[in-house]
């Protein structure tokens, strides 16, 4: 357990530069007529259906050996290749095409110019090959959560990394099957619990996760981040649901009228033109 903890947190070696990527929820496009016909469950199902897996980069990124400066960089001199994945905050795509090779001199700060993000993605992760490494890798995670159009590689390559290799499976959907054939769909399960009116488990899980990590429990970093991402994804979809419902209700206030109850009386109802 202690050795796993040391590996997960990069103790004794460099770490990749990371920034957390918040989930990006694709709008459902629910119309007022669909809202009326489907109610709460219908609207939530349309929102769930809109969260399709996003695409990996299709064009190779470009980079130059000293585009960020000729001095001050900490990468070892040598030749390098790199690949880039993208994230929508739910998960991560597989890598795009490999870069061209560059030759880095001591002190150089290579700069990457990224291709445009694929629809629904909000950030990029850079995986760097070893100095004088072969075309095709292996690659190690160098930086994650990059939202800018360019990125400068100023730091030394990590001596170990949480994500040693780029993913082989696209995990940006609400449900995906990993390389071992295991289905991952915990955010979807959280949302289904709400539809069944079952007590949601994700708040208790989130609270325990935060308390344990803050208290110094030796938690595997990858597992911690995945649990946080799963919970955040479910909450982000619920927040988007509230936002969409709010916009629909605000735009369609209707008026109060009365309708027959069927037993000779009348009751107030809301109607729309």
Helical segment count: 5
Number of domains: 1
SSE string, helices as H and strands as E: HHEEEEEEEEEEHHHEE
Determine Rg (CA atoms, Å).
24 Å
Largest pleated sheet:
3 strands, antiparallel
Low-confidence stretches: 1-13
Q: Which sequence of strands runs across the widest sheet?
A: 1-5-8
* Number of E-type strands: 12
Task: State the shape.
Answer: elongated
Give the overall average pLDDT: 88
Strand content: 15-25%
Give the N-terminus to C-terminus distance in angstroms. 65 Å
Report on this structure.
This protein is an alpha+beta fold and about 270 residues long. The strands form five sheets. It has a three-stranded antiparallel sheet with strand order 1-5-8, with no helix packed on it. The termini are far apart.
Topology:
Blueprint: H1 2-8, H2 32-50, E1 62-64, E2 78-80, E3 82-87, E4 102-104, E5 111-113, E6 123-129, E7 139-146, E8 150-152, E9 176-177, E10 183-184, H3 186-195, H4 202-214, H5 221-251, E11 255-260, E12 266-271
Antiparallel strand pairs: 1-5, 2-4, 3-6, 5-8, 6-7, 9-10, 11-12
Helix pairs in contact: 2-5, 3-5, 4-5
